[in-house]
């Protein structure tokens, strides 16, 4: 049995392999080839924390994966990361434990950001370069890095806005130090009007900005909403978008960013990302379209990224 | 972080402590003090296997527990146990992993059998001594041992019936070697008519015997049904019982032994075991009652038995 901690996992991780596997996992999911367990949600109100369990199996593969991810949002004040958790892989032939990846949430953060960047690459205009990231936490950081790594055909300029201006400044400084172009922006409304790409990475429970600010031709990827009651975007923006894409319709309409628009309109049309990535369904049709993506996170991503670590460990052992 | 394998867990395990904690956990559950996650069920038809994930948190305690348990029923032919899995405990204050108990299903088998024995002790006649165990697998073995250990006020005689007569013979021989009184019985119908206590431990999907065979005053505990479509007892026996007790009504009526009777009668009355154990509700009222218990297994049991191992490990370390 493989038992790896976060530094070992980070050493074995290969970005390009993970991107390809997660890309393929979205397609497998959209095509109905992923068995997904109920999403478990435990809440610890007194500790300002929660825990999600996601699980699944991609038909025909060797292992099923159970992912435990927690967020305890007062942890940073205690000197601890807010994200935590592990990925567990089991043999789909015998149930034996194949791997315990004690990634402390790192693989979830990474697969979430890769998902966001894959969605943006698939749906933003070809000439989109101005990226507004809302939020300055760990997911904002991962999203910026994954967008830059996936969209190397253009020079992206990151604009960072966060309620905590000093966090936005820190993230910008760190991104610049890593070789990317980033500035913190003080005026959210002005930044939205100037953005080609908007990525929201907050835990908001009401819209972060008013409807009518996103300009034509922009692309929006909402990452934050992952349980009932969370919302980052104006409901009207979602309802009026040229195209709504999500990772899994059943999750998105129930507890993702699209829940609010879906409550208003039970017939709300959405397309799953895998169908866009496979080319089976058309994405952006003009430079005037406003495209909106809602990612709630799916077990297929967890399975895909876990499998890359297992394979890398097997490869490292064989060498 | 505590990381224990099955032999280490078995060494630290204390039966009496586990019985007390599981007893209390049923009460906490019935009284609404347990937050229970959705039960996850993954099925692997080609491998004749499945995997359940149960999770929960007892209000006011230090940790939440996620239990992964698989059953791959062709494993014995491969020289592997059919049950597998682990218990995971996390801090309810920070989400940090406190313990990985790689029990391979042993703690689940044990907490399931302790639950069965607690239910039988609470509801069987005070002079009930003739115990029929249906099934001769690992759970039949654990049930017999836990019944004997919990009901030391009387000498129990175990009668073992299984479709596989040689397995019934083996289990009887082993129980006798362990100091208990057991015989295999060839005629199931006759054995049912002679039993004071019947415990069913099979994966049956239709009743194991006909209605009308269980005599007045008997107690029946059904352990096997834990997903839609499973059933061990005649629907009429359940419907006509003097008292129906279950571990958790929402599970039992949906995917436990009581699902069939509940489909026929949506107003079927059931009592949760915790209310019987606390004395809040009355159990058996006469020596003529037929009492039936359905145990689907609840997260509170997993939390309770996991906590005993964590505490025992802390105690062992302190010494």
User: What is the radius of gyration of chain A computed over CA atoms, rounded to a whole number of angstroms?
Assistant: 19 Å
What oligomeric assembly is this protein in? homodimer
Major β-sheet strand ordering of chain A: 10-9-8-11-12-15-13-14
> Whole-Å distance between the termini of chain A?
18 Å
Number of strands of chain A: 15
Range of helix content of chain A: 25-40%
Strand content of chain A: 15-25%
Pair with the biggest interface: A-B, 38 and 38 residues
CATH architecture of the largest domain in chain A: 3-Layer(aba) Sandwich
* Individual helix count of chain A: 11
Which structural class should the secondary elements of chain A be placed in? alpha/beta
Low-confidence stretches of chain A: none
**Biggest beta-sheet profile of chain A:** 8 strands, parallel
Describe the structure.
2 copies of one chain form a homodimer. The first copy, chain A, is of the alpha/beta class. Chain A folds into 2 domains: 2-107 and 300-318, ornithine cyclodeaminase, domain 1 (2-Layer Sandwich), CATH 3.30.1780; 109-297, 3-Layer(aba) Sandwich (Rossmann fold), CATH 3.40.50. The first copy, chain A, is 37% helix and 25% strand. Chain A is built from 11 helices and 15 strands. In chain A, helix 3 (106-123) packs across helix 4 and helix 3 (106-123) crosses helix 11 (299-318). Chain A is globular. Chains A and B meet through strand 3, strand 4, strand 5, strand 6 and strand 7 of A and strand 3, strand 4, strand 5, strand 6 and strand 7 of B.
């Amino acid at each position: 049995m493989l038992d790896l901690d976060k530094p070992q996992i980070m050493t074995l991780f290969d970005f390009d392999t993970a991107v390809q596997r997660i890309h393929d996992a979205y397609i497998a999911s959209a095509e109905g080839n992923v068995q997904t367990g109920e999403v478990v949600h435990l809440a610890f109100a007194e500790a300002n924390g929660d825990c999600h369990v996601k699980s699944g199996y991609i038909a025909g593969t060797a292992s099923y994966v159970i992912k435990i991810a927690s967020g305890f949002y007062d942890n940073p004040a205690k000197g601890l990361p807010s994200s935590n958790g592990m990925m567990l892989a089991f043999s789909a032939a015998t149930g034996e434990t194949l791997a315990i990846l004690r990634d402390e949430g790192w693989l979830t953060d990474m697969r979430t950001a890769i998902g966001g960047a894959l969605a943006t690459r698939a749906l933003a205009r070809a000439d989109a370069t101005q990226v507004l990231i809302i939020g300055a936490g760990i997911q904002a950081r991962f999203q910026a890095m994954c967008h830059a790594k996936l969209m190397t055909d253009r020079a992206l300029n990151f604009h960072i806005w966060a309620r905590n201006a000093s966090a936005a400044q820190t993230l910008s400084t760190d991104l610049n130090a890593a070789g990317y172009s980033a500035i913190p922006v003080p005026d959210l409304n002005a930044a939205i009007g100037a953005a080609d790409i908007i990525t929201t990475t907050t835990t908001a429970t009401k819209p972060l900005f008013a409807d009518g600010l996103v300009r034509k031709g922009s692309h929006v990827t909402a990452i934050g909403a992952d349980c009932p009651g969370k919302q980052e975007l104006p409901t009207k923006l979602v309802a009026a978008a040229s195209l709504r894409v999500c990772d899994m319709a059943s999750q998105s309409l129930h507890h993702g960013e699209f829940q609010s628009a879906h409550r208003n309109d039970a017939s709300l049309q959405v397309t799953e990302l895998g169908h866009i990535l496979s080319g089976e369904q058309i994405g952006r049709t003009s430079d005037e379209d406003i495209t909106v993506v809602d990612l709630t996170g799916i077990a297929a991503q967890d399975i895909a990224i876990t499998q890359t670590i297992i394979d890398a460990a097997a490869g490292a052992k064989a060498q």
